[in-house]
Specification:
The chain has 171 residues and is of the alpha/beta class. The protein contains 7 helices and 6 strands, in the order ααβαβαββααβαβ. Strands 1-6-5-2-4-3 form a 6-stranded parallel β-sheet. Helix 2 crosses helix 3 and helix 3 packs across helix 4. The chain starts with a helix and ends in an 8-residue tail after the last strand.
């Protein structure tokens, strides 16, 4: 790969001047849209620091006002997602975790801990069509029964599965 190709890959094509997408991130977003037009879910493999949360924020922004659910399994991932997604879309997402409850009738994105969202009583607060898009951070945990309970509750929701682990492709 030439030096100019390496530099070009990291130039920002996005019109968002505050949080521009890098070229590879913009291509990834286009590929996600193409795959979700045909399939229910798509896996996104990026190295640590590659911008998985940035891409998730862009996809939430582009989801045309439909409600999105971002799932994570650790406090620091939830905090990162809330801060970064809020910064990217211009409004803070609601949180479904511990004592925090997202509005059942809200229209903005929800960032939720898998542990909280998978509890039957909490999950059933939401109807099956409340979310149109589910993004699962570190999806290599996704095959577990806890995650499957959430996915099965929202059968029509499209899913974006960002991970830095090839293990996600082996489940």
């Amino acid at each position: 790969m030439s030096a100019s190709m390496t530099l070009d890959m990291f130039e920002a094509p996005s019109t968002d001047e505050i949080n521009p997408l890098r070229i590879y991130q913009a291509k990834c977003c286009r590929a996600i849209e193409e795959k979700l037009a045909v399939h229910r879910s798509t896996l996104v493999l990026l190295a640590t620091g590659g911008g998985k949360t940035r891409i998730a924020g862009e996809m939430i922004r582009k989801w045309h006002g439909k409600r999105c659910l971002f799932l994570a399994h650790r406090d620091e991932l939830i905090t990162q997602a809330v801060n970064r997604i809020g910064e990217l879309i211009g409004e803070p997402p609601e949180i479904e975790q511990g004592e925090l409850r997202a509005s059942r009738f809200g229209s903005g994105p929800v960032v939720a801990s898998v542990q909280s969202m998978s509890q039957t009583r909490r999950l059933h607060r939401f109807s099956q069509d409340d979310f149109d898009l589910i993004i699962t951070d570190e999806v290599h945990h996704g095959p577990s029964a806890t995650y499957r309970r959430i996915y099965d509750h929202f059968p029509a929701a499209k899913m974006i599965d960002p991970s830095q682990s090839r293990c996600a492709t082996q489940s």
